[in-house]
Amino acid sequence: MPIPITIVDAFTDKAFSGNPAAVCVLEVDPDRQWMQLVAREMNLSETAFVVPRKDAWALRWFSPQVEIDLCGHATLATAHVLWKAGRAAADATLRFRTKSGDLLASQRDGLIWLDFPSLASEWVDAPPMLRDALGAKPVSVAKYSFDYLVELESEAAVRDLAPDLRQLADVPARGVVVTAAATTPGFDFVSRFFAPRVGVPEDPVTGSAHCALAPYWGERLGKSAMLAYQASARGGVVRVERVGDRVMLGGNAVTVVQGALA
């Protein structure tokens, strides 16, 4: 029997921008190898697989190469699909059981809001391979549970960065976030995210990275609510709100493809 699959552009209100994620809504738990093969076939930064539970939804994410521990844009895309398909009331809060604990999604002020963990980072010495791969001089380097977080001197330096992805794949982390204070009016900070080690050369918009960027920039700017721009070729806008040990990620989503796996 064909299995429905939907591709959603997340953290954008316009098709063909933001970060595309494939979403499979299933009725029984799928085989892990099958999920990995589907993700490889989709060849997007993440494919999400969601299965109903009694009081929640079991959610897993896969890149083309590996299972992912935490993913923002594919969670936002999954919530969008469930609401659009009538699997949950528009005013319902969705609870997702994941490898990173329970995550919540709700709708407020015309946006989808994700309740995610805040990820603290610690200052570290940059590995020589990281500096060489980036080809840019960091202002500072930190590390959190998944990735390196590298601050550059300006928004222009972030936008113009052309790292050596082969070298970057050897850096011992899921990926590398580069960031700077924004000079574009209306935004607080900008970023880009590279994860060739897990099969994602550059991720268009990375929700999980903003779980670390929110506390990082919140402390520097003295703000609890900020507007961020991920300056990939597709681009995407992420609203962040710091609430205790949690980070709220707000964004839009647009369905671009509806189909089925044969």
Mean pLDDT: 97
The fold-level CATH name of the largest domain is Diaminopimelate Epimerase, Chain A, domain 1
User: What's the CATH architecture of the largest domain?
Assistant: Roll
Q: What name goes with the CATH superfamily of the largest domain?
A: Diaminopimelate Epimerase, Chain A, domain 1
Number of strands: 18
Helical content band: 10-25%
Strand content: 35-45%
Which class best fits the helix and strand makeup?
alpha+beta
Main sheet record: 18 strands, mixed
CA-atom Rg in angstroms: 18 Å
Gross morphology is globular
Write a brief caption for the model.
The protein is α+β, with helices and mostly antiparallel strands and 262 residues long.
Account of the protein in words:
The chain has 262 residues and is of the alpha+beta class. The model has no long low-confidence stretch (mean pLDDT 97). It has six helices and 18 strands.
Task: Summarize the topology.
Elements: E1 3-10, E2 19-25, H1 32-42, E3 46-52, E4 57-62, E5 67-68, H2 73-84, E6 94-98, E7 101-108, E8 111-117, E9 122-123, H3 128-134, E10 140-143, E11 147-151, H4 155-160, H5 165-168, E12 175-181, E13 189-195, E14 200-203, H6 207-221, E15 225-230, E16 236-243, E17 246-251, E18 253-261
Parallel strand pairs: 2-3, 4-6, 11-12, 13-15
Antiparallel strand pairs: 1-2, 1-18, 3-4, 4-5, 6-7, 7-8, 8-17, 9-10, 10-11, 12-13, 13-14, 15-16, 16-17
